[in-house]
């Protein structure tokens, strides 16, 4: 069964608030929203409890086995995104279509409410990702901007939420940001796995100077970080005895349009250029008007 056909939670893993007051408690503070707009990210936000973490880890343990049930539903599936067998980076897109926990996390109010605040409106699904670095030799995720891979949509109204399923540290390959790089222009794609430094080939001298001041985003398991689609980010190898696993939820503001006629994500439906991104694979996850929440709009 393709869970993309169901646009609401199918389990009790992420209870939905029953009143405006219950929704309100998930809002970011004004200071957090301001920090995001100034620096391009905001981090350290807990969105998973222990039961939710355990469920997602259990589902993930089966998904990393290539012959699992539902394997035909992935948008992409790479047991190793790197070309180096000694530097493994498991990377896959589309877990929400296959397992109930990864499906229902999209409607987690601890995620959807902050996402709506940062986007300034109604939140639609784009796609999810899994990034797993095994112990000792987990591969890198090279410096990049997310929107460089997403130009099949317009305007640029996207948001990324990176969720740690393990503690994320400098030693095991936590995310790093270049603060303020969300104000840079769109950079060319220089590769997602392998050479961390390949992006330097397309940077100005001023941008190279900014690389001297990266911010390491260390998180506890169950915490997340949100970042802007132009934020330059990457993560180094895992040097520890344990895995470093993460799930990523990518969303966009309702009203975003297709910028091409061909299918944007594999095994989905083509949306003609200029038409609104919507349908089974791009459902609404949160509309603030439905909850009577009032957000300051950009």
Features of the shown structure:
alpha+beta, Jelly Rolls, eight-stranded antiparallel β-sheet, four-stranded antiparallel β-sheet, 14 strands, globular
Domain count: 1
Order of helices and strands: HHEHEEHHEEEEEHEEEEEEH
- From the helix content, strand content and strand pairing, which structural class follows? alpha+beta
CATH superfamily label:
q2cbj1_9rhob like domain
Separation of the first and last Cα atoms: 39 Å
- Indicate the mean pLDDT: 95
Shape: globular
CATH architectural designation:
Sandwich
Number of strands: 14
Output the number of helix runs: 7
Cofactor: Fe(2+)
GO molecular function, one term: iron ion binding
InterPro entries: Phytyl_CoA_dOase-like (IPR008775)
Keywords: Dioxygenase, Oxidoreductase
Description:
Its cofactor is Fe(2+). Keywords: Dioxygenase, Oxidoreductase. With 298 residues, the chain is of the alpha+beta class. The chain has a single domain, classed as q2cbj1_9rhob like domain (Jelly Rolls, Sandwich). The protein has seven helices and 14 strands. The longest helix is centred in the first third of the chain and has 14 residues, at 50-63.
Q: Can you describe this structure in just a few lines?
A:
Its cofactor is Fe(2+). Helices cover 18% and strands 22% of the residues.
Topology:
Layout: H1 20-24, H2 30-39, E1 41-46, H3 50-63, E2 76-78, E3 90-93, H4 100-104, H5 109-119, E4 123-133, E5 141-144, E6 153-154, E7 158-164, E8 175-177, H6 205-210, E9 215-217, E10 223-227, E11 233-235, E12 244-253, E13 257-258, E14 284-286, H7 288-291
Keywords: Dioxygenase, Oxidoreductase
InterPro entries: Phytyl_CoA_dOase-like
Pfam families: PhyH
């Amino acid at each position: 069964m393709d869970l993309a056909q169901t646009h609401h939670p199918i389990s009790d893993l992420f209870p939905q608030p029953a009143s405006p007051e219950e929704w309100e408690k998930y809002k970011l503070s004004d200071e957090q929203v301001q920090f995001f707009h100034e620096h391009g990210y905001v981090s350290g936000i807990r969105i998973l409890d222990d039961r939710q973490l355990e469920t997602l880890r259990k589902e993930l343990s089966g998904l990393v086995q290539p012959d699992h049930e539902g394997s035909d539903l992935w948008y992409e599936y790479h047991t190793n995104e790197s070309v180096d067998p000694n530097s493994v980076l498991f990377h896959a897109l589309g877990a929400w279509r296959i397992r109930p926990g990864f499906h229902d996390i999209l409607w987690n109010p601890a995620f959807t409410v902050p996402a709506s605040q940062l986007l300034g409106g109604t939140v639609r699904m784009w796609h999810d990702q899994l990034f797993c670095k095994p112990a000792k030799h987990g591969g890198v995720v090279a410096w990049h901007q997310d929107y460089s891979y997403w130009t099949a949509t317009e305007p640029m109204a996207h948001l990324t939420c990176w969720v740690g399923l393990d503690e994320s540290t400098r030693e095991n390959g936590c995310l790093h940001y270049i603060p303020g790089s969300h104000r840079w222009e769109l950079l060319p794609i220089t590769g997602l796995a392998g050479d961390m430094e390949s992006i330097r080939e397309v940077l100005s001298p001023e941008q190279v100077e900014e690389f001297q001041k990266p911010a390491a985003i260390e998180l506890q398991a169950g915490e997340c970080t949100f970042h802007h689609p132009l934020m330059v980010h990457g993560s180094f190898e895992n040097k520890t005895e344990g895995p470093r696993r993460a799930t990523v939820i990518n969303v966009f503001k309702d009203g975003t349009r297709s910028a091409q006629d061909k299918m944007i994500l594999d095994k989905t439906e083509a949306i003609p250029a200029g038409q609104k991104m919507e349908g089974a694979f791009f459902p609404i996850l949160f509309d603030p008007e439905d909850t009577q929440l009032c957000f300051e709009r950009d």
